[in-house]
Amino acid sequence: STLIEAGSERLLFDAGRSLTTGMARMAINPADVTKVFLTHLHSDHIVSLPELYLFAWASGRQTPLQVWGPTGTRAMFTHLQEAFAFDIHIRRDVDEKFPADGIKVVATDIREGVVYESNGVKVTAFLVDHSPVTPAFGYRVDYRGHSVGLSGDTKPSDNLVKFTSG
Predict the structure, then answer these.
(1) How far apart are CA 104 and CA 81, in angstroms?
(2) By three-state DSSP, how is residue 136 classified?
(3) 7: confidence class by pLDDT, cuts 50, 70, 90
């Protein structure tokens, strides 16, 4: 997992093992991380998504979790919401009365190109070679004249070089 802070934006790239434990060590409230970008859907890159989804809501997230990732991301979150439907119902409607918007998810299956742009931050997704896994993405984040590029798993990739140049 990689967390990038750009102004008021907190952007999380992948959700590997022990994500929320690491955030706690850094005094980062998981409820403050509402934007997640996935490189690919291997379990070692997404295993902490259920914890981030549910725990951050219980920790005060009041806005929907937004997730961008390769084909299958939207379906994965539909099934995740189904798997936790009982817990969500009890915590939202019966017991703790957690905010309804905080457990919503806006999941988007992406293609190469700009996938997010707000508050001076631009996130561009680009394809990388993680064959046989396709698609797999890297990302470039631009903010106030600064840029950072990152990728999940990839072989040497001309596209990675192309999108992270400069």
Answers:
(1) 9
(2) coil
(3) very high
